[in-house]
Specification:
The complex is a heterodimer of chains A (527) and B (365). Chain A is of the alpha/beta class. Chain A has 4 domains: 122 residues, ATPase, nucleotide binding domain (Nucleotidyltransferase, domain 5, 2-Layer Sandwich); 124 residues, Rossmann fold; 175 residues, Nucleotidyltransferase, domain 5, CATH 3.30.420; 67 residues. Chain A has 14 helices and 23 strands. In chain A, the strands form 6 sheets. Chain A has a 6-stranded mixed sheet with strand order 3-2-1-4-9-10. In chain A, strands 11, 12, 13, 16, 19 and 20 form a 6-stranded mixed sheet that branches. Chain A has a 4-stranded parallel sheet with strand order 6-5-7-8, with helices on both faces. Chain A is globular and about 80 Å long. The termini of chain A are close together. Chain B has 365 residues and is an alpha+beta fold. Chain B is 33% helix and 27% strand. A 7-stranded antiparallel sheet of chain B has the order 15-14-13-12-11-17-16. In chain B, strands 4-3-9-7-8 form a 5-stranded mixed sheet. A 3-stranded mixed sheet of chain B has the order 1-2-5. The mean pLDDT of chain B is 93. The chains are: A alpha/beta (527), B alpha+beta (365).
């Protein structure tokens, strides 16, 4: 018997759950996210430990989902000084690295950008060989001025050796302390997007180091000896070492955790998940326990990348959404009082009418220390200029319309599928939704994200292009599969739990014989 | 004559995606290439064909290759210069202007990069008025203008010159060697006189692309409906509103072939649409009956953000609007239909103009 703690740090709240190894929730909490992040995590973990009354030595794993990296990027704060080397001359020089970055980020990160000879053709032939002197000359120019180096080679997804060689030279010239970020480990095919991912990853390695250190210290202060993991954006876990090396993979792990958590709480493998927060409702699609991935290129901090991001559609409906009445219609948001609900909401003595006020007045939501109910209804009548029941009906009608539109947008076919509600604002959701076979409100839905963080699965993936005129496609696919499997076992998956999530070969247009292979596996953490 | 700046390229690139009718390669890379070249070498002069001297040498410079390669092995810029220089050297004559071969997709913007670099004007015309998958599918071919000599260069410095017996062989031979070059290259082709351009090109197409791009981008910036704005500026027919319900995709030979199924919404709630594509969208059928057929243009637009959708990135569940636009009159002749019509792509349906197919449909006009 052992226990796990899942923690999810969001913009407003830091949630934690303590669960048994059979995934039963024994304690849960919602704490405010603190400015330093760590103290919020500490308070949350302390609270669930206390409530569950479990001996500390039985907490075997702690999983953290966090927005540290997303915030650092959006706010352009604490980013590492970086260098970037692209391997591929004479190809690619017309479009240099960072060309399409937002200007402020380019200024911040773009001081040491170099292109050197090298790279491969799609079929593995050299574009040109690496030139040691040329690479080392670039490295010397960066000496003492960078903390992380992003290395990107043309077709490094097929042959990564040049990237790895440059990484070795970087350590020689710049010292072992310099961090490297090789593109073949952080992105897919598509040079610019993969290079962008590698550059963002390099820029985040300092933040990641601090985050990991703070997490370790927090856990240490709490006298826990648990094994620690960080959630990544495909819903699986990585070790602290991996998180330091590949911080960019943690971006957008929040929605993923909610989607997976809601699915696990309701024991539904496929359906639509709506996570209602203070400002927005985020709708996502659960397919075989994993979020459906978006096929659109993902912009992170204004930079185009080719990440596997969960396909999330957001609408402006949350607990703090401001309600206005115009003639015989009511308008919801799109603005919200957000985390200031307890200052601005009229239930709390403020002057702004929010969605939460209606549900508090109607007894569908309970919060302590608010205005007396009749008093609250009275205030709503004054502000809305109509009787309470009528105002409430209009509000619910609007919610119904918006949510049904959201559900319809997420669905891929007319078949009715389950809708799972989660998040602190789930009380807003109607019990019946057109297009939904049923609407589920699982127990513990308000901490679905923290619960999602502690579903202990890990994954590995890779993709490459092969020339089937020279190589046997089946053999190549099996080879890729077995490499990905070895990688997954190295990360700590138990062999009998390994599941194939993706195994595909897609022929390429205008290139007879060339095929893109892609493999993704997941497995359970050995316990 | 007027100058084209990096800001204009944004509009033209967006318009090229519309004219790409689902194919032609994503202009994103082309846009970056053109903007970087203009930034480095200065604005490009865009001229009308009538500004050309009749004996001026005009050449098409184009990117050639597989979309997947173009986004991984980016261009060096040198390959285009080489294809240009080779043509001048081979013909022993200065090139006085560049004409895009294909205004749809990537090749709608790439020629700006070469024009900036070589400081020659770009002609406001092309040989397709849209995108097509093969080099011989041009109005130039319809007018008997040979694609050859074709100059070909890669980023490594390899070069080739072709003399082919007809324009179809041009595509076949250049296609074969492009694979050996690593899947992408630059070509110079259709060397012709100013007089020939005036007769054989689709005129005003660059300005048209710019107008379409502007319709979308500016309407978005002003919070107006970008799709309505596009329909108005393009004089397009709104064929269908719906949601993508299925996509089947296979690669046959060198082409992505497939069918995209759309379930109707709003006015079309009781209807289904299918779009047949082979890189480009070639046939739209509503409830089994054709409502737009190549060479007329079929454009799939994301209803949420008014972004034209390429066939490679069709995603289940996307809300879309399907538009059709008339092809240039040269495509609507019997010769034109033979070269760019449904039979060329193996469909048994006969070509009928889009306005003909929709004349009894009061919903769409």
């Amino acid at each position: 018997m052992y226990y796990k703690i899942g923690v999810d740090v969001g913009g407003t709240n830091t949630d934690a759950v303590l669960v048994s190894h059979g995934n039963n929730i024994l304690a849960k909490t919602k704490q405010s996210t603190t400015l330093d992040v760590s103290s919020g995590i500490e308070t949350a973990i302390k609270k669930v430990l206390l409530d569950a009354n479990i001996p500390k030595e039985e907490i075997k794993y702690i999983m953290l989902g966090t927005t540290h990296c997303t915030n650092a990027l959006v706010e352009r704060k604490e980013l590492n000084k970086i260098g970037a080397i692209r391997i591929g001359l004479p190809a690619s020089s017309a479009i240099p690295p960072m060309i399409d970055f937002p200007e402020d980020l380019k200024k911040l990160l773009g001081n040491h950008v170099y292109m050197v000879h090298g790279g491969y053709e799609f079929d593995g032939r050299l574009i040109s060989p690496l030139n040691e002197k040329e690479v080392k000359d670039c490295l010397l120019k960066m000496s003492g001025e960078i903390e992380s180096l992003a290395i990107t080679g043309i077709f490094s997804k097929t042959l990564p050796d040049q990237e790895l060689q440059v990484a070795i030279w970087a350590k020689e010239v710049l010292g072992a302390a310099v961090k490297v970020s090789c593109s073949h480990q952080v992105g897919g095919l598509g040079l610019l997007e993969r290079e962008n991912a590698a550059i963002l990853n390099a820029a985040l390695q300092g933040v990641a180091l601090k985050m990991v250190k703070a997490f370790k210290e927090t856990v240490h202060r709490l006298e826990l000896s648990s094994q620690l993991f960080i959630g990544q954006n495909d819903g699986t876990l990585m070790s602290l070492e991996q998180a330091q090396d590949f911080p960019v993979l943690t971006i957008s792990s929040g929605p993923t955790n909610s989607i997976r958590g809601a699915g696990a709480l309701s024991q539904v493998d496929s359906g639509i998940v709506i996570d209602v927060g203070g400002t927005t409702s985020d709708g996502g699609v659960l397919v075989n326990f994993f979020p459906r991935e978006s096929t659109q290129a993902a912009q992170i901090g204004g930079v185009l990348t080719n990440f596997r991001m969960p396909d999330v559609v957001t609408i402006g409906i949350g607990g703090g959404t401001i309600v206005r009445f115009k003639e015989d219609k009511c308008q919801l948001g799109p603005d919200s009082v957000g985390y200031l609900l307890k200052e601005k909401g009229i239930s709390f003595g403020g002057f702004t009418l929010t969605l939460s006020d209606f549900f508090l007045a109607n007894d569908q939501l309970q919060i302590e220390n608010i205005l007396e109910k009749n008093n609250l209804k009275e205030r709503i009548q004054v502000i809305s200029g109509r009787n309470f029941q009528n105002a409430l009906e209009l509000v619910k009608e609007q919610i119904q319309l918006s949510i049904e539109k959201l559900v319809d947008k997420l669905k891929t076919d007319p078949k009715e599928i389950p809708v799972i509600a989660c998040g602190g604002g789930a009380f807003l959701l109607p019990k019946k939704i057109a297009g939904a076979s049923r609407v589920l409100f699982p127990e513990h839905l308000e901490v679905a994200n923290a619960f999602g963080a502690c579903i202990a699965q890990i994954s590995s993936e890779d993709e490459k292009i092969v020339n089937t005129l020279q190589n046997d496609e089946k053999k190549e696919l099996e080879k890729l599969l077995s490499n990905v499997k070895i990688e997954l076992l190295k990360k700590g998956a138990s062999e009998d739990s390994i599941n194939v999530l993706t195994k595909e070969s897609i022929p390429l247009a205008y290139l007879p014989g060339a095929v893109k292979l892609k493999v993704k596996l997941c497995g359970d953490l050995i316990s | 004559m007027r100058k084209i700046s990096t800001k204009d390229i944004e509009y033209i690139a967006m318009g090229s995606t519309v004219l790409g009718t689902g194919g032609g390669g994503d202009p994103y890379i082309g846009k970056l290439l053109a903007k970087e070249a203009i930034h480095k070498y200065g604005d490009v002069s865009l001229i009308a064909a009538k500004e050309l001297k009749d004996d001026a040498l005009v050449v098409s410079i184009a990117a050639f290759g597989a979309p997947m390669i173009l986004v991984e092995k980016l261009f060096s810029g040198e390959e285009f210069k080489r294809a240009f220089d080779m043509m001048e050297a081979y013909l022993g004559k200065k090139i006085e202007a560049i004409i895009p071969a294909e205004a749809g997709g990537l090749n709608g913007v790439i020629p700006f990069a070469v024009a900036a670099r070589k400081k020659v004007p770009l002609v406001d015309a092309d040989g397709m008025g849209r995108a097509f998958p093969r080099l011989e599918m041009t109005t130039f071919t319809l007018h008997g203008i040979p694609v050859s000599p074709i100059t070909q260069a890669d980023e490594k410095g390899n070069k080739n010159i072709y003399h082919t017996i007809d324009n179809t062989w041009g595509e076949t031979l250049v296609g074969a060697t492009t694979i050996q070059m690593g899947g992408s290259c630059a070509i110079g082709c259709y060397p012709m006189s100013g007089a020939q351009v005036k007769k054989a090109a689709v005129h005003g197409i660059v300005t048209y692309a710019e107008t379409l791009g502007k319709a979308i981008i500016d309407a978005k910036a002003k919070n107006q409906n970008p799709i309505d704005s596009l329909i108005e500026k393009a004089a397009a027919i709104k064929l269908f509103t719906g949601k993508i319900s299925n996509v089947t995709l296979k690669t046959e030979g060198r082409w992505n072939k497939g069918v995209c199924e759309i379930s109707g919404l709003e006015k079309n709630i009781d209807s289904q649409m299918t779009l047949d594509f082979q890189n480009e969208f070639l046939m739209a059928k509503k409830d089994g009956k054709p409502v737009a057929i190549t060479p007329d243009l079929i454009v799939l637009i994301d209803a949420e953000n008014a972004q034209p959708i390429t066939a490679e990135t069709i995603q289940y569940g996307t809300r879309v609007v399907v538009l059709a636009m008339k092809a240039d009159a040269q495509w609507r002749t019997s010769e034109g239909v033979k070269l760019g019509g449904p039979e060329k792509f193996g469909y048994k349906e006969k070509y009928l103009p889009v306005e003909e197919l929709n004349k009894n449909n009061k919903d769409v006009l």
